[in-house]
């Protein structure tokens, strides 16, 4: 069994590579820049007896994707799991938006996912079996100020997931997405401490998630334990979505109606 994880030299991608290697997959650690970091992930996998390889490619470029898949398939003869993880965040308010950041985000976060899914699905067709897991975000479901571009890319990933699931189901290929909330990775470094504390206050579990939380869910979705699950976007956010939902509800109710409603609930 072979699993490809894009953006696997650090963070969520690294955790997914290590977990899938422990599950018995030969893992392909895709990365775009840091060869040293990618080799460290591979060394960690080999240390517990796992197998794999590193491959440098920018998945936003279709020619590099095609060449990577060609090399991987020649080496291993199969591709069973794809974890689309490579992505970037460019937080900007509308009036600060610039063309380069817009293009960079959509090229990697959306087109890169499409290119990888297309190339891997072509190989999965031969076995009529496979799993594609897209790493999305709660930003694709709820509005966070300054994340119109990032949120738009993740919203695209969510709809892509549902549509590809329908297209590929006849060929035995399942497509699902994981939408993490605030996970302890380098992507949180740009958030001011006081703002992060505000989010912690409204997360029902009052803590950040960790990369292993994501990798465990990815592992499940890649396995036959999830053989009847496809087209789903699974939120992993410690209950943060509940806060967004409750805020929507609160805004729809004026105070008089709210107090009356709460009183009725207590009776």
What does this structure look like?
The protein is of the alpha/beta class. It has one domain (2-241): NAD(P)-binding Rossmann-like Domain (Rossmann fold, 3-Layer(aba) Sandwich), CATH 3.40.50.720. The protein contains nine helices and seven strands. The protein has a seven-stranded parallel sheet with strand order 3-2-1-4-5-6-7, with helices on both faces. Helix 1 packs across helix 7, helix 3 packs parallel to helix 4 and helix 4 (99-124) packs parallel to helix 5. The longest helix has 26 residues, at 99-124. It is globular, with a radius of gyration of 20 Å. 40% of the residues are buried. The model has no long low-confidence stretch (mean pLDDT 89).
Short description:
The chain is α/β, with parallel strands linked by helices and 267 residues long. It is built from 9 helices and 7 strands, in the order E-H-E-H-E-H-E-H-E-H-E-H-H-E-H-H.
Which helices and strands, and how do they pair?
Layout (H helix, E strand, L loop, with lengths): L1 E4 L5 H12 L3 E6 L3 H13 L3 E6 L5 H15 L4 E4 L14 H26 L5 E6 L12 H21 L4 E8 L12 H10 L8 H12 L10 E4 L3 H13 L2 H12 L1
Parallel strand pairs: 1-2, 1-4, 2-3, 4-5, 5-6, 6-7
Main sheet: which strands, in order across? 3-2-1-4-5-6-7
- Helical run tally: 9
Largest sheet: 7 strands, parallel
CATH fold-level assignment? Rossmann fold
- Spell out the helices and strands N to C: EHEHEHEHEHEHHEHH
Question: Can you tell me the residue ranges where pLDDT is under 50 for at least 5 consecutive residues?
Answer: none
The span between the termini is: 57 Å
Average pLDDT reading: 89
The class by helix and strand makeup works out as: alpha/beta
Radius of gyration from the alpha-carbon trace, in angstroms: 20 Å
CATH homologous superfamily identity? NAD(P)-binding Rossmann-like Domain
